[in-house]
Design goal:
The structure is a homodimer. Chain A is an alpha/beta fold. The first copy, chain A, has 2 domains: 9-212 and 333-394, 3-Layer(aba) Sandwich (Rossmann fold), CATH 3.40.50.10540; 240-321, formyl-coa transferase, domain 3 (2-Layer Sandwich). Chain A has 19 helices and 12 strands. The first copy, chain A, has helices at residues 18-28, 52-56, 63-68, 82-93, 106-109, 114-120, 145-151, 172-195, 205-212, 214-223, 257-267, 269-272, 280-285, 287-298, 303-312, 323-328, 330-334, 375-381, 386-394, and strands spanning 9-12, 32-37, 72-76, 97-100, 125-130, 199-204, 240-245, 248-253, 316-319, 338-343, 346-351, 356-357. In chain A, α1 (18-28) crosses α8, α8 crosses α9 and α11 (257-267) packs across α15 (303-312). Chain A is elongated and about 85 Å long. The model of chain A has no long low-confidence stretch (mean pLDDT 95). Chains A and B meet through α3, α7, α8, β6 and α9 of A and α3, α7, α8, β6 and α9 of B.
């Protein structure tokens, strides 16, 4: 079956987590993604969280790099030298989509800004991925996921009540902003298909973080409410948090009055189906009392028993899993959430793009690339002559010999 | 300027947070989004986190509902009655995109499954949004954001070391999966524009959560590592966490050796630029020592001073903001992250979609709708006769009188 983005050429100057996560999705959709890397060093995510031992292995690459760079080929280009920039320009002019996450202004200084590329290729979709956006007081400040967890207020609502803030354990802002980039590129491709017009599109960790925080900001703008950390609980409804089981923990969420009634009935009607708990507003008011009553019941049952009883009663319930339990849970494979990539000739499981397209399924054509592994192949495919490639090599375009 | 999705009709049966967050983005892009709601009750997110007083206000709607439902019109349809289902079918047949987040099988039982709609409209993009997917052991288990925070292992890596897990403070999985839905719909629209073919697409909280966790799962599959909570810190590099300032906290992230060198030089070279800290692997090994040394320096400076010094040295740094500080920070407005919606005739700020399209900018045409406010208007526009509407009304299609 065809891929939705078959034939689309993506030139990807981006590094680290967020934008590479986005271009991987474009690759899953069928696009031909060329990853531009700094000679010798490459995407610094190759080294994140690596041990000394792991780094010594041939073709060493960190788990995050492996997780976010399948379906890409790698070309090593030195943008610090004129020959490298010339190659980059010619590749850009022949691409459908260009992605970068350098600081505002860097690409223009290298002669690779939107105006220059558009002059050579009117149909290009030029996608910039910033930390805080192109303009404004923070535009030139560097940032990563954690910085935006702090800046956005996400950290201020994550943690135990009365204790210090903590981070959301995964790089949620990076990955969300990377997915936003995918949506922006796809919307622009759709528009181009209807009109013939390319355009510049933009996202940032800031916009991604604000989107994740949107209902907290709306509440603040509406009435000044500033939320604080609530452990596993939630200001929206009660019960909506972790409860203790005899062998672990489960979350139980019953926001509507009907669902709460079913929850009480499924676990211990005599102790839980009390008139004062029947209305959602009363459950919010009697939060401490309800949590104590429900916890006293749940701690007498196992996780398995709680999940069985509550899911049968159509009450939202889930076990608190470890990373390993979650990764290996059979549901992920059943839901099509796994793909297989090859790393050094051995198969390795990886997580799919976060959707399934019935008519144009995702595919994995290539494992995460070694740094610069496809430099020559890409250039010859894109119309560079063999002599030209040699000349550029001598001029240092692919790094000093 | 045109919108990328001008002329696209979206019929949106979805409720609560995740899928409505996605259809709002489609609306921002220019699509005509019709929100189908249960008569009298409506989307239950209308009531989440509301106080008794707020609920008494006319047209009351919760902050999350206001945050996630602009650019939509609301039609009240009773899918429990044949007349309501007939109206739903006719609207579906005339739509470009259909979205629902009912449990697997529910739409088919109402005669609104993919096969039925596709028979009437070969070009339809039929988007299903599930909790855990269509098949598998958990397919019929209800879930929400918190359930997937627990199931996915996100909760198991969020919190202070040695203390109980906590939630990520915002509904990151809901919002991420909602954005995944947008990407899936846009990819399908693009494919349809190239081929004329519609298709069924699917996402789920499970796929969204797994995508957010992807590098943790990859690491586990690679070598069995099961990560645990680390407060604000991170296993990927050191320093990469909150440090105390004299008047609050800042995050400092310096993963590369060059950035760490600049960090040390900008704050206290004599105390920090020590040979044993110069290599990233050594900083990981000497985590406790480095954190103590850096913290001893940062606590003598204010947040403002730290941000100023470190950002000038191109070191990733950010203040730990409260919700209010984040929402009102001037950078968000400068970056185009704010839109204005009208609520009961008063303007209210809201968060933009998480990207900007230069050639086809987002727009806000409509405030979040009152329940069923556009029932008649929509039907007349979509070719229903006035008499037909009256007949459907008598048959209870829009709720019992």
């Amino acid at each position: 079956m065809p891929g939705a983005l078959d034939g689309i050429r993506v030139l990807d100057f981006s590094r680290v987590f967020a934008a590479p996560a986005g271009t991987q999705i474009l690759g899953d959709l069928g696009a031909d993604v060329v990853k531009v890397e700094e000679p010798r060093k490459g995407d610094e995510a190759r080294y994140y969280g690596m041990t000394e031992q792991a780094l010594r292995a041939p073709g060493a690459a960190s788990p995050p790099f492996l997780a976010l760079n399948r379906n890409k080929r790698s070309i090593a280009l030195d943008l610090g030298c004129p020959a490298g920039r010339e190659v980059a320009f010619r590749l850009s002019a022949g691409s459908d989509v260009l992605v970068h996450n350098f600081r505002p202004g860097a690409m223009a200084r290298w002669g690779l800004g939107y105006d220059a590329i558009r002059a050579a290729n009117r149909r290009v979709i030029y996608c910039e991925f910033f930390a805080y956006g192109k303009e404004g007081p923070l535009a030139q400040v560097g940032a990563n996921d954690l910085a935006l967890q702090a800046h956005s207020g996400l950290m201020s609502i994550t943690g135990e009540p009365g204790r210090p803030p903590v981070r959301c354990g995964t790089a949620a802002i990076d990955l969300h902003a990377g997915l936003a980039m995918v949506a922006a590129v796809l919307a622009a491709l759709y528009h181009r298909e209807r009109t013939g017009e390319g355009q510049a599109v933009e996202t940032s960790l800031l916009l991604g973080s604000a989107h994740l925080m949107n209902y907290f900001y709306t509440e603040y703008w509406l009435d000044g409410t500033v939320r604080k950390p609530m452990g596993t609980a939630n200001h929206l409804s009660v019960p909506n948090q972790v409860f203790p089981a005899s062998d672990g923990g489960v979350v139980i969420i019953a926001p509507s009055d009907e669902m709460w009634r079913r929850c009480a009935a499924a676990l211990a009607p005599a102790r839980l189906d009390r008139p004062e708990f029947r209305r959602s507003l009363d459950r919010l008011r009697l939060r401490a009392e309800l949590i104590e009553a429900l916890g006293a019941v749940t701690r007498t049952m196992s996780c398995g028993e709680l999940v069985k009883r509550l899911s049968a009663a159509r009450v939202n319930v889930a076990k608190v899993n470890s990373i390993g339990e979650a990764a290996d849970h059979g549901q992920l494979a059943e839901a099509g959430g796994l793909v297989e990539i090859g790393v050094d000739g051995r198969p390795l499981k990886a997580v799919s793009s976060p959707f399934k397209l019935g008519g144009t399924p995702a595919r994995v054509d290539r494992p995460p690339p070694r740094l610069g592994a496809h430099t020559e192949e890409i250039l010859l495919q894109r119309g560079f002559g063999g002599d030209e490639v040699s000349a550029f090599r001598e001029q240092g375009a692919f790094g000093k010999a």
